[in-house]
Each structure stands twice: as C-alpha cells, then as structure tokens.
Design a protein that fits this description.
310 residues; alpha/beta; Rossmann fold; DNA polymerase, domain 1; 8 strands; 43% helix; globular
C-alpha cells in the first residue's frame, strides 16, 4: 500500500489556489496528498494534471482522487517533460503548479525499492523503474573518484573520498548488492568519533546516490523555468524542497526570474529593458512544530512560492 504523510499540505495548496475553474499541475503527484486537498476546491470546470514517474504512486493517487468532481489527467512521466505533457493534453497555460521534491515515505519504507539505509533491500533507488541506471550500478561501476565526487557534491559528505575508497575496496571482493551491505561499508569508512555525531552516518551518501540515480538536480532548474513559462500571468508556483542543494536552486531561479533591470550599476539609465517574470511571495516557510512532531520528516521541508507577473 502506498502510504505517505504529506508535508505542508494546506499551506502549499492554498498558496497556489485562486480559481475553482482553473487548471493546476501537481508535478510530483506521489500518493496525491496535495492534490486530494486541491481538488476539494475545484469545480466541475476545474482541471488537475498529476505527473509522476513512479507507477505505484500514480496507482495510489488514482484511487485517492477517484471521487473528484473536476477533470483529472494523469501522466507517467518526469516533471521535466511538462511541455510535452501539456501539449498532449491541449493545455496552453495553467493557474497553479506544485512541486513536492525528494523521496516519498512509501519509497523510503518499502525495502525492495532500495532507498533507505534503515531497511535492508537490494540497492535500487530508481523512482522510474523503467530506467536502467540504479544505485547498484553506481556503487559497483563508478570509479573511486566518480563515487567521491557524487557523494561530496550531492551529499556534502566530508568523508566522501574515504567512503569512495572503501566502496571500491569492498566491491573488489564481491559486488555490494544490498542497502545493509553499503551501510556497513560506509560505517567502516567514517571514523568512530565522527559516526557518533550528527545524523545517521549513511544519510548523506544515500541522498547523494538517490540524486545521482534519478538526475534530480540536473532536471530541477530547467523544470522550474518550464513551469513558470507554462503559468498564465497571475498564476502561482509553490515548491517544497527537503535539503539545501534543492532549496539553493529554487531560491536562485526565483531570484533571477524576479530581477528587473540587469544593466551594469554604472549605467545612468536602463537600456536592457529586462522585466521580471516572477514576484516572490513572502519568505520561505517551514513546517510547524506541531507538524514536525507528527511527521519528523517534515523537519527539513522548505516552501517557496512565487507569482508570474509577465
């Protein structure tokens, strides 16, 4: 059963909802947590498009949204394919877009998906199980320097070089096939003193591998720009990120698209005629203490919202 606790549900939905007859896109449909709330505000003339590359998520969302009065369309696709999805559905502009980035509780808690360092299963981590590259391939075929680079870049792990070295040594004896085997290697690589501090010693490495396998950061900036392009003027985009790498990209893209004149400061008058595309709505929002108590995974969530102005 696909089970996932939705983070910042009401805050996210109400930040983008404006028109009950509007068209909205849930770029990361998951189990439909945000969408089930959104469709409650939509009329029979309203429309929801749900995108996800995980077929298990789509199946769960379809069951959960079965009673919606508005039109609901589903796309088994990556959010980076938004232009093609909208074109196929005959949609030119939309009123609101939601991104809920990262991995779902279902994916983390289903051992055979191989996402979690807390559950033993075969190394996998593919959100789209049709793709060929898996965490098993990364761990067992990347060079030592490539592994270290991935773990440092996407996990911001200070022991990335040691972990890469230990992985290569371990797999020279036999392939690393399961999440528990990889956790054991990581623990051996990190000095005992460092293991006693901070989060689980495998957390950053598993995050890095997941990002590498699914190309999460590679697609994110382009997808945000595509989403903004798809919005009508006055439409809104809301993005929930779960770690600093994601949030940094969201913040930078929003800031760039919200910038007006880009002439050098020495110019006496504007000659670029550059106009902002977005206006950022307020500061980033975090989950409440009450929500974090109920769902500890909400602790790192960061919600940013912007409105299209031109």
């Amino acid at each position: 059963m696909f089970a996932h606790t939705t983070v910042l549900q009401q805050e996210t939905v109400m930040s983008v909802f404006q028109d009950p007859n509007g068209v909205y896109v849930d770029m990361t449909l998951g189990g439909g947590g945000h969408s089930v709330c959104l469709v409650q505000h939509l009329s029979a003339q309203g429309r929801l498009v749900g995108i996800d590359r995980d077929v298990a998520a789509l199946t769960a969302a379809k069951a959960r949204l079965e009673g919606a009065v508005c039109q609901v369309d589903y796309a088994e696709s990556n959010y980076s394919d938004l232009p093609q999805v909208l074109q196929q559905l005959g949609i030119e502009r939309v009123d609101g877009i939601i991104f809920d980035l990262g991995v779902s509780s279902y994916q983390l808690d289903t051992a055979e998906r191989g996402f979690s360092y807390q559950h033993d299963g075969r190394l996998d981590m593919r959100m789209d199980r049709r793709q060929t590259l898996s965490a098993y391939d990364v761990v067992n075929t990347y060079t030592e320097s490539e592994l270290a680079d991935v773990i440092q870049k996407y996990g911001e792990e200070r022991w990335a070089k040691r972990i890469g070295n230990y992985i290569v040594k371990a797999r020279s004896r036999r392939p690393i096939e399961t999440t528990s085997e990889l956790v054991s290697v990581i623990k051996d690589a990190i000095p005992a003193g460092a293991r006693r501090q901070g989060p689980h010693p495998a957390k950053r490495t598993f995050q890095a591998l997941r990002i590498e396998v699914n190309g999460e950061l590679r697609d994110l900036e382009r997808s945000i720009r595509q989403a903004v392009e798809a919005l009508r003027v006055g439409g809104r985009i809301a993005i929930i990120s779960f770690h600093s790498l994601e949030d940094r990209i969201v913040k930078q893209v929003f800031r760039e698209l919200a910038t007006g004149c880009i002439c050098p400061p020495t110019f006496p008058v504007c000659t670029c005629c550059h106009k902002p595309t977005l206006t950022v709505l307020g500061k980033a929002r975090k989950a409440s203490a009450e929500e974090i108590e109920k769902n500890p995974r909400a602790r790192s969530a960061m919600l940013r919202v912007a409105e299209k102005v031109s």
